[in-house]
Amino acid sequence: MKFFLDTADIAEIKTGIAWGVVDGVTTNPSLYAKVGGSYEELLKEICGLTKGPVSAEVIADDADGMVAEGRAFAKIASNIVVKVPMTTAGLEAISRFKAEGIKTNCTLIFTANQGLMAAKAGASLISPFVGRLDDISEDGMTVIRELAEIFQHYDDLDHCEILAASIRHPRHVTESALCGAHVATMPLKVLEQMTKHPLTDKGIAQFKADWSKAKGGK
Ligand code: G3P
């Protein structure tokens, strides 16, 4: 399973990469707004930090506008993936990007049918938002589970990967993995939380205490 960092913060990306568990990065306009500056320069820097896919999101509402923005992103680096919203214009843009050999990540997916449409249009990644569905008292993981099951039935969807997005806590990652999501994108905080267990901390403290005792001759 692949892990992406869901951030535009360079320091956070460097930290996650140093842990050896980051396979790519996803950004969006809200994450970019937290750091500011030039989006293009930021993307260039992120693409220099990881060889994995780096999602850059378009703002236009129409297919022509999305294609123009995406083509410009794709020129920044070979690992750019153009993030396109789930609309009919988005589907057209995804299909046109596919014809040009530009990879896409279809974002803001909240149903299995939306994911299926994006995959059929040619998206390389589809991003169901788990946490935002949980926020409105729905079960976000159901979308991941349904899509993973659908993907098992059809070879013609093999070009596309299910990317569990809007991940809020470590349990979301475990469940996404159990469902068969290919990728989970998450904030650095969740990636760090995944390393934690109180018995690990207790065990380290105990080993240190016993080591000191042994060295002290007691
Ligand atoms: O990058 C898309 C997605 O992961 C956003 O998550 O927490 O804003 O719902 P969130």
Indicate the mean pLDDT. 97
Q: Please, what is the CATH homologous superfamily?
A: Aldolase class I
Based on CA atoms alone, the radius of gyration comes out at 20 Å
CATH class placement: Alpha Beta
Structural class: alpha/beta
Give the bound compounds. Answer: SN-glycerol-3-phosphate
Shape: globular
What's the number of structural domains?
1
Write the element-wise H/E pattern from the N-terminal end onward.
EHEHHEHEHEHEHHEHEHH
- Regions with little confidence, pLDDT below 50 for 5+ residues: none
Report on the biggest sheet: 8 strands, parallel, barrel
User: What is the fold named in CATH at topology level?
Assistant: TIM Barrel
- Name the helicity range: 40-55%
How far apart, in Å, are the first and last alpha carbons?
46 Å
Q: Strand order, main sheet: write it out.
A: 1-2-3-4-5-6-7-8
Provide a descriptive summary of the structure in words.
The structure is a single chain. The protein is of the alpha/beta class. The chain has one domain: TIM Barrel (Alpha-Beta Barrel), CATH 3.20.20. The protein has helices at 10-18, 29-35, 39-49, 63-76, 88-100, 112-121, 130-135, 140-153, 170-179, 188-193, 198-215, and strands at residues 2-6, 24-26, 54-57, 80-85, 104-109, 125-128, 161-164, 183-186. Strand 7, helix 9 and strand 8 (183-186) form a beta-alpha-beta unit. It is globular and about 75 Å long. The N and C termini lie far apart (46 Å). The model has no long low-confidence stretch (mean pLDDT 97). The site of SN-glycerol-3-phosphate has 9 residues, from helix 7. SN-glycerol-3-phosphate binds next to helix 7.
